[in-house]
Amino acid sequence: MIQVFSNSLGAGELKALKSVFKSKWIGFGRETKIFEKELGKKIGSQRVLALNSCTSGLFMSMKILKLGPGDEVIIPTINFIGTANAVLAAGAKPVFADVDPEYLNILPSQIKKLRTRRTRAIILLHYGGHPCDMDEIYKYTKGLHIIEDSANSPFSKYKGKNCGTLGDIGCFSFDAMKILSVGNGGAIWLKDDALYKRAVEYRYFGLRNKKQSGVDSFKEKKSRWWEIELSCVSNRFIPCDILSSIGRVQLSKVDSFIGRRKQIWKVYQKELSGLYWLTRPPEPLNETRSSYYLYWIRVCPGLRDKLARHLVDNGVYCTFRYFPLHLIKHYKAKQHLPNSEELNQSVLNIPLHQNISDRQVDKIIKVIKRFGSLYC
Ligand SMILES: Cc1ncc(COP(=O)(O)O)c(C=O)c1O
Questions:
Q1: Domains of the chain with bracketed CATH
Q2: Mean pLDDT, residues 345-356
Q3: How far is C-alpha 41 from the chain's CA centre?
Q4: 148 close to ligand 1 (CB < 6 Angstrom)
């Protein structure tokens, strides 16, 4: 089966692991701090902290921005489940927004429509790696916090700025299915020093900055280095040096991963053009750069599930990211969002990652075209 997601871990990562094992320090330490510096350089800002997941970043953002009961947070419904969970866990209310039928990014007009006096923030997703139209979004978000979920768009750019650094807080994922993969990991970017300081505390139990551990106090020559104090109450969201050492090697290779993804994207765009029954995804907006995380095709609703079965039966895995959150019964959303509901019946993600060979790309295209000749 050709997978939809894959990772590229090899000799470089093993070598880095070996050196961490040898150092006898496998927890949060030197490798993580260097990884943060290198990541900061890559995204153009040093106010970034490595985490154990992107979901941790989403949960932390609620606390950092002091969002809670009585507050509403607008989120596009075609989205990862952790986003709505983070809002609800904070006691706030997620308000689901419809998306653009081509880009699957939030419709800026929805922000205007859904915004109330209770709205405090918006969580954006740059679907598939294609940046949202931020200038349009900024028109409707004055006075609101912007949190970017940059899990799909780790190195996408909007007018020269890295996605994840376009609002107040940006969350990145390095989990097993992401472009830069360490197994489980993530990062959070903060717009200013005050937010950064709060993030440092929320990342580790709420312990006061610079007194994160007995070791720090020891270095500061305190006589009782085991004494601690809290600023707030939080969970433990730190990563470890084992994973950060992998992250550093992945970071040095990630441009080539994205380059290969773009090549495959281009072949799909060329070879799948002119099929009257299939709509290809749009190119990234002008003055933007995509990370090419997903490739999404649209067919008419009656055909989609049949095409999915045909692909899987012929060795090509496919899926749909992301099931509209307002349709999850547990959230009791009671909203009707027509574009997203139609997309939920018509979109499929086909494999797009750096490990797909040219032969596999040909195969995927042939399998899709064969479906057309059989059923359309
Ligand atoms: C859009 C999006 N946001 C956030 C996450 C959460 O990432 P993590 O697995 O690092 O918590 C995912 C994971 O699939 C995702 O797809």
A1: 11-250 (3.40.640.10), 253-375 (3.90.1150.10)
A2: 98
A3: 19
A4: no
